[in-house]
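Hi support team,

I'm opening this ticket because the web form for multi-chain structure prediction keeps timing out on my end. I have pasted the exact lines I submitted so you can reproduce it. The total is 768 residues across two entries, so I didn't expect it to be a heavy job. Is there a limit I'm missing, or should I split the entries? Thanks in advance, R.K.
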Amino acid sequence: MSQISDEDRQALRDGFARYLDAEAHEEKLRAGIANNRGYDETIWQQMSEMGLLGIAIPEDFGGVGGGAIDVALVMEEVGGKLLPVPFTSTCVVATEMITRFGTDTIKKDLLQKIVAGELTVSIGGTGDFVSLSDDGHSLSAKPSVDGWAMSGQVSFISHAGVADYHLLGLKKDRVQSAYLVKASDAVSAERLSTNDPAQRLFTLNFSDANAIKLEGIDAEGINQVRMRGMAAVAAEQAGATRAIFDITMEYLRTRYQFGRPIGSFQAIKHMAADLLVEVESATSAALAAAKALDAGSPSAPKFISLAAFTCKDAFRTVSAQAIQMHGGIAYTEEHIAHLYWRRARAGLPLFGSSDEHREHYLKSREAA
Amino acid sequence: MAILDRSASPEEINNVVEAWLDQHWDTEKRCAKGEDSYDEKSWLTKVFEAGFCVPSWPTEYYGLGLSQKQSGIVEKAFAKRKAQGSARDRFHLGAITVFKVGSEELKRAMLPIMLTGPICCLLYSEPNAGSDLAGVRTKAILDGDDFIITGQKIWTSNAQEAEYGMLLTRTDWDVPKHRGITFFLFPMKQDGVEVKPINQITGESEFNEVFITEARVPRAHIIGSLNEGWTSFQTAIAYERLIMGQGITERRGKSKADSEPQLITLARKYEKYDDPTVRQKIAQALAYRELNGLNMKRAKQEIMTNGSSSLMSLGKLAMSRVQHGEAAIATDLLGNAALLDGDDYPDAANINFDAAKAYMNSIGGGTDQIQKNIIAERVLNLPKEPDLDRNVAFRDVKSS
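Hello R.K., no limit was hit. The queue was backed up. Here is the completed structure from your submission:
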């Protein structure tokens, strides 16, 4: 349950939105894309200043003790501006894993650094809390004098190139384990070429790197972490869907052909009205999922599945149609539409495909 | 007369309404206490006098001044005992429209009559004015204090029972179409009004044609102003679309929130529930319905905080996809069996009925295509398409 009042939540969101409107313009996005980090570090630091990085962190560890709904509102804004920041990995999934399964020492050390914007965590391997599983990894952990030593290779890790810690899942014979590995000389990162230029995917190689094993991991805890990660991703996609839709509507009002705005043609209007249903459904689904999580509702898994495929599919459809409705201008690299479209496509496999989530959703609707 | 006001807590409201119903309503016999059968007029008069007909309206207009949420509690208490008469502020389109845009005189004269009688019928569409409703040709000619009406209306529900109809007429033929329309509250029970049922593709006859030949309506029954009927009409049609988006046109008791959705039950019965393609389709169909519900829930919250919500206009459009989609899947689940019909084949009969009935939502109250134009223009602020008949006197507009 969130510790933040409704007024504070609205103020937080409005403040963040105002900041992003002023600072997170397209040039910054493109500059971020061109640098090694993938995002603008000043925005991350500002998010820290505003208390957003600790939004899901308990007050005891310097956070603000927010709930899934607070994360969702932040993520809607993050998605709207396509910020390629490591928020879900660091401030949702890693934060939840550390809060649930970390020792007090780890919590004190890492969570406070996350709040301060001094530490990011990348996540990979296999397991339900990993958004991009790599079944082909060759990771293995063995006991060492300092705890554990991690060896092997794993791919599909977002933001791993600049992350301070790597949270690695190893799931074997249904047994989940998780390790924290600090960036060091024993870890090397190789960037992968990606379809979404804002996405930073890496292959990591570990050679007996020191690892901390998270203890006491249970399936229900992992499931909670997974659902919170999924709710964050859904909200991000819902926000991005609305943003590219708004950009498109503005174009339809101002682009003239045949002596009239193209938005006056019914062929275009009907597409727009249909897409608005998708935009609003994505928002509703993402909010319902976050609220169900915060309420501890038994329907939470159902709403999470619903939000997962609804938001992925809405973002994909709306961003694809945005290119179509813009016409030639959006077929150019310099127009922003393809960046939304690429992000939508990059989101398709996160925490499982739409088809998988539709299947989960159906099961949740069956009679008990 | 009010026995409740806005300061009442949900429990207080519920208690007061339940106590009132205990005193006046016989749940067993479904009629007023002490009577043998249901007398609509006398029961509705009781409900009206207690303010429960229109709880969200102010006390000076026969309501209790309650919020929408509080009114919902009144409505629920009535529904629980299957008592009629509540929530007329949500479903009585005629009364709502008169309340919103009628003159003070009309409100005082007619609201008590309307709220205690059958609901009004809607005399809008004509054979040549369907989607283009502003093209109505029913004539209203001033004669003393009355207007004399001649014309034909179509798609009118409850035309036999209704005592009044909301009538769109042409009063000025020499100005462009939107500017020569007058909206009337029209008395149905008079000579010159002939009602003829329409046989629908569902097998039902909910709708009628209404032939009007030199019937009369008092000038005082204009809703809004002379020749400005199109503006008043917008209020009525907006409420109608709002009601349709809530799925009110569906058969009642179709699926309860917690019970297993019908499509799943049907898929099991016809042994197709293991087919992954079928499962995907059913899941998506159920999702569309649930998402529309979530959108409407958000709309209601927005209305409570801001007084309006653009989300509301999406409900009817989204419901079309839900209803046509579910019917299509169900038809496929039955396979050959869907070819049959009639009482001996209830699954087929139900599904074939649903497949036809889905058009009620996607055509009735404005086709989906008209609804998309409205959403695009009013919600998304996309520019209007140039109208060929916009600046043409109505008598010169081309028609089929």
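A quick check on our side: The first strand of chain B starts at residue 25 and ends at 26. Let us know if the file doesn't open in your viewer.
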